[in-house]
Amino acid sequence: MLVGHLAVGFISKRIEPKLSLGTCLLAPLLADLLLFVFVILGIEQIEFGSGSGAAQFLHAINIGYSHSLLMGVVWAALLAGAYYALRHSVRAASILVAGVISHWVLDVISHQPDMPLAPGVNTELGFRLWSSIPATLAIEGGLWVVALIAYARMPARRSWPWWIVFGAGVLLLTLSWIGNISGPPPANPRTAPMASLIFITLVVAWGHWLNRLGSDPATNRLRGQTPIQVDSRG
Ligand SMILES: [Zn+2]
């Protein structure tokens, strides 16, 4: 999944405005970020075959450290623990735990049966949502639209620069998702993991940028600034 994971991030921000949107997006993307780091380091392996859409061409050979349920719990505890140490919010840290673990659940729904329970355990799950483009557009796309609306309608002051950065990012992400579910495999499989790692880093940076542009009262209170007036017009 791609925009399905991002949807979890936007909904997290809506539930807990104190969290930066960048952190909210990092949690559900953490497993993929780790995957590409581990692939570059040679710890995990993926292969690109042929066919249209990632459901066809992407083959997970060994992804137990980044993508198993057990390690998902470990990564969630590490991210949430680091957040709690810095910000002392149990509620926000719990939402990050849910965000990290949601990656496994959503990947099980969308992947071929390649999602491990633990490193070295052979039981692998996957309900192949991504094999059907119409079902993916309806379910993952529906989740994406609902999450974007929920986020955009938060009580916060939205400036023109915010709308431009938000709209352009959403358009690019939607196009890369369509490319992912229906397009060809990466032109250069050797550089694809690094390109994907840079892509995820940019998405998280985009979230932090949006957070700064679209200040909301709760975030400012946390930073010790004067709360700005809430503009309910959106
Ligand atoms: Zn994944």
Please give a structural write-up.
The chain is mainly alpha-helical and 234 residues long. The protein is built from ten helices and four strands. It has a two-stranded antiparallel ribbon. β3 (115-116) and β4 form a beta hairpin. α1 (3-15) packs antiparallel against α2, α1 packs parallel to α7 (133-152) and α5 packs antiparallel against α6. The structure holds zinc ion.
Structural topology:
Elements: H1 3-15, H2 21-41, E1 45-48, H3 54-57, E2 58-62, H4 64-67, H5 69-87, H6 90-110, E3 115-116, E4 124-125, H7 133-152, H8 160-182, H9 192-213, H10 217-222
Antiparallel strand pairs: 1-2, 3-4
Brief characterization of the structure:
This protein is mainly α and 234 residues long.
